[in-house]
Hints:
Elements lengths: L2 H29 L4 H4 L9 H8 L4 H24 L6 E7 L3 E6 H13 L4 E10 L4 E9 L5 H19 L5 E8 L6
Parallel strand pairs: 4-5
Antiparallel strand pairs: 1-2, 3-4
Helix pairs in contact: 5-6
Amino acid sequence: MIRRTGRGNRIALLLIGLALLLGGATGLVRGLNALPDVFGDQHALIIDKPTRNWVAGQPWFWPTVAAVAVLVFLLTLWWLAAQGQTRLLRRIELEADPRRGTTYLPAGAVTSALENDLAASPHIRHARAALTGTSTRPRLALSVTLTAEAEPAEAVGRIGQAIGRVREALENEDLNATIRIRSLRPSRS
């Protein structure tokens, strides 16, 4: 997940949580009749007659409520769509020279080569790689599943060597890599 999206998710969930907490606390206080002078009597209608009359006299009120509901719905759809965006790179810029042109490498070639390199190891059952970031500053996301009989130190060494080869091929020693390693449980005999 991208940092900006993660931060936005935390802020939005915090605000929604606070609104729900305040609404629940208000309902609880009213139900317990703890502050009847502030929230009204627990047996009284939530929306009193003067408020209903005021709403009935305002022709703009219900269209505004509908517009706000549609806006909330569209924001919710936008938020859901943002969760699915991976922002994978399609290509990596290797050499930018205004006189000779720019050289690009398909990101899929890099990730496939890394996955094939790791698949050749007897300690690694499955590897999945993806490049994110920008074409000039890519980031590597790598997910590796070790075999049940794998030696973790040897597997980590193999992963480090493979990432070193990718950095060398891209001529980018600063390539950031996030690695998730999962191990299968040994089978019981």
